[in-house]
Amino acid sequence: MSYQSPIAPGRSFYESRLGERPLYPQLDGSLTTDVVIIGGGFTGLQAAFNLARAGVGVVLIEQARFGDGASGRNGGQMGTGQRAWAEDLETQFGFETSRDLFRLAERAKTYLHDFVRDHAIDVDFQPGQMSLVHKPAYVEAYRRHPEIMAQRYGYRHISFMGREETAWRVGSSRYLAGIRDTGTGHINPLKLVVGLARQASLQGAQLYENTPALSVRSDSGRVRVATGSGTITADHGLIACNGYIGTLERMTAAHVMPIRSFIGATEPLSDKTVIPRGEAIDDSRFVVRYFRKSIDGCLLFGGREAYTADNPRDMSAHIRRQISEIYPALATVRITHAWGGNVAITRPRQPFVREVMPGVISIGGFSGHGVMLSNYCGKLFADMIAGSGDELRLLEAMAPPAFPGGARFRKPLLLLALTWYALLDRL
Questions:
Q1: DSSP state letter for 328
Q2: 3-state class of 321 per DSSP?
Q3: 282 inside domain
Q4: 78-136, pLDDT tens digit by residue?
Q5: Domain check: are 273 and 140 in the same one?
Q6: Rounded Cα distance, 224 and 214, in Å
């Protein structure tokens, strides 16, 4: 019988392509350690791996199984830079900070490539990513972007595509223009989660699945995390729950908002004109559509979002409708998998990194740009605890503001705002 996640709907395509998914034990009893981590996604597991490798005692707990959250169920696109373009961050923070944030993201990219190579983790990497324009008002900004990145940031892997080239590379005439980035690519994210957990365990990190955190508090210089079977006591804590923070910690919940995103996978395509070079794709909608072909030729298509905890009765129907808008010839293609989960966003789409109580750092809110950044943030947290670096402070200084409305009205106000922006996508 196939595994069904208790925290996210549908069985993902990624799990169907996975050879082995080890099961880790449930915590039974109380423990004392140097660092306690809540959350078994990219951030938490990378922190555990790097801390254990540095000789720091670490215990990590995950409420479900590793990869059941966004880390194992996302679109798999690595991206370049931060979620916002460098020139937009430059307007907000100035050139030097924008440059430093871009360089941090490039180090994150290098780190991820080096990590999977050094530990022989096959993540089905494929090169290339395209960002496409769906409204005429955006074309000029996309036209300028490659030159800005080359001249001001030294990144020369991006080129502008006119309508004809875009249509050929996408296999659809639906988009007006786009940019092509040959310096990045896409992966099977669940394969990375599984390989990462294995490496963290080999380094000596204590990893526990199916162990929800019931509370976290800091008192008398110690961090205490309560579970159903006991308490974990540590000198330092990391909250890496991202879109599954719930009510565990109020400050994080005020800044990091979960929205539901859904993905479908088709049978292998016989139509070779669909993304013939195999790049990943995202588009210029506020409710972004993101799609790519797997290494065995299946179309993976994500884009429908929901802003409540409810899941659609038929996820595949919504995904099929969006696929057929871009690829009418695929209107009847068989969808073999449909799944969803929480994506965590912040108001400005910038990562949330903050000490939320003495000795406890919370990291999340990657806003759909977390494959590289969340892995690297886990490493940077470990560096900070081990005393070998403070690069995490650069992200902390971005300080995204809280969502308005307080605990009672926060979600209704977000629903109104996101619904409005989704409407603008159609105009």
A1: G
A2: helix
A3: yes
A4: 999 999 999 999 999 999 999 999 999 999 999 999 999 999 999 999 999 999 999 99
A5: yes
A6: 11
